[in-house]
Amino acid sequence: MDNFDILIIGSGGAGLTSALSAYKKGLKIGVVSKSYPNNSQSAMAQGGINASISESDSIEEHIKDTLKSAKGLGDRKVIELLCKEAPKVIEWLDSIGVPFSRIDSNIAQRQLGGTEQKRACYAEDYTGLKILQTLIDNVINRDIILLNNRFLLDLISKNSKIIGVKLLNIENLEIEVIKAKSVILATGGYSKIYGEYSTNSKDAVGSGINIALKAGCKISNMEFIQFHPTALKSSSILISESARGEGGVLINSDGARFVDELSTRDEVARAIYLQMQKNKSVFLDLRKLDKNFLMENLPQEIKLAKLYENIDVFTEPIPIKPSAHYSIGGIDVNLKCETNIDGLYAVGECSNAKVHGANRLGGNSLLEIIVFGLIAGESAKEYIKDKNFNNFEIRDYKNSDFIDELLKDNSDNNKNFYEEKHKLSKLLYEKVGLFRDEVNLKEALNYVENINLSEFSIKDKNRIFNTELVEFIEFKNMIEITKVVIKSAIERKESIGVHFRSDG
Ligand SMILES: Cc1cc2nc3c(=O)[nH]c(=O)nc-3n(C[C@H](O)[C@H](O)[C@H](O)COP(=O)(O)OP(=O)(O)OC[C@H]3O[C@@H](n4cnc5c(N)ncnc54)[C@H](O)[C@@H]3O)c2cc1C
């Protein structure tokens, strides 16, 4: 495998935007994808991307709402940058082909929680999918190299400077070592540590963050995990906040409303959880909304409710529960997306750019991945200008004892890690969820610290597309990330934003 000037790990919205921004004729740029770019979690985003582009709104209002939601833990400078760049970013996305919904000729906007403005630009309720697809189209029209079916195993650095990466080729389990002058991590978040109590895709267990941590990166604010109020009860599939933004209400099994539906997500999610603790079911009720309006603006939600819950939203309320949705913490970066390792950048949900502070506003994270994706690409391009490839022996990194061991026949270690993952997720939902206290957090930590990886094995010993092996490596990363999340939650004694201490 060749050397790359800039190698981007992760092919979601943050990774692909970075690639487009880093692109320059003559530079060798690669995007590593665990499967294929269109499988990235960014495709799941529904509700919209924030920008103050209407006459009734302003950049100042957007800054104010974001700061308010961040509850003092956001960085004002970063938030100002995010909100100022937002209108330009929408213009850019529009110019490269994102098919935003429109009213007359203007880009349509809807209201999400935590603001009084209709600020989220959308493409029906497929906003993430349409943005991602447009980014992919633009990437494949340039000579950017897509390295599909590769999983990042390790970052290679020397004297606190990035020099390359170690990848696992999932197609044949070969280890590929690539020299790179600069690396951008865009590996997404970690909310899927909550398993079936999460709206996220299965990749989102924080592998990239754990790998960065191992390499010496600073990570921060890992205790802040946002729960979305309205995930389908039996599958945790998200029903977008836009459904409430457009007038949907929340009712309990007595038919009573119990919360202002447009309060911030943490408040609504906690109110729902408390209803559930009183053995009441909770429903999202769209029955009063105009049928044509729903079909035009929320077509995906109608299909999801039918497909996964067998609910006709026009005649029945949708059973829901809060589920882990967005991880705020991550790899510490500055305004240029630089980490504390030279030449290594982080962007998107795997990073902590201090945009969201203690709570994230709906619509601000699609915005973050584009604004900071553009910045990360520019920063990396600037960085490599006077850099050469570092000399190191590829063969020194070509093996993995851990993988060799897993592929051996060893019937003594026969515990099923999928079952363990399931148990762990449930425990996290109950003890490290919407309400936290020291006793439960310590119990959870004790449980995770006693998971002994050597007791588990994988059944599939094949070298061709061995996804079980990759999922086991992710499980290993997930355990490390889970420990960090719980320790951070123990350390933060006060309730703030999405981190609610019932003993605080
Ligand atoms: C259901 C849902 C709805 C949402 N709706 C909205 C919305 O309406 N508005 C909004 O602002 N935000 C929304 N969000 C949040 C937003 O979509 C995400 O925060 C954002 O898309 C994250 O983008 P990303 O590029 O950082 O990561 P991702 O899109 O998660 O991409 C990460 C990539 O890294 C890859 N990867 C991970 N680990 C490795 C590894 N070790 N090796 C190789 N590759 C790896 C993954 O496979 C993936 O390709 C939503 C999220 C969900 C789950």
Topology:
Layout: E1 4-9, H1 13-22, E2 29-32, E3 49-50, H2 59-70, H3 76-96, E4 102-103, E5 106-107, E6 109-111, E7 118-121, H4 127-140, E8 145-147, E9 150-158, E10 161-169, E11 174-185, H5 207-214, E12 219-220, E13 225-232, H6 242-245, E14 249-252, H7 265-277, E15 282-285, H8 291-297, H9 299-309, E16 318-327, E17 330-332, E18 344-346, E19 351-352, H10 364-384, H11 401-407, H12 417-431, H13 438-449, H14 467-491
Parallel strand pairs: 1-2, 1-11, 2-8, 11-18, 17-19
Antiparallel strand pairs: 3-7, 4-5, 6-7, 9-10, 10-11, 12-17, 13-16, 14-15, 15-16
Helix pairs in contact: 1-4, 1-10, 2-3, 3-10, 5-14, 12-13, 13-14
The structure holds flavin-adenine dinucleotide.
Residues 9-15, 32-34, 40-42, 44-49, 127-128, 151-152, 186-188, 199-200, 203-204, 207-208, 238, 326, 348-349, 362-366, 369 line the site of flavin-adenine dinucleotide.
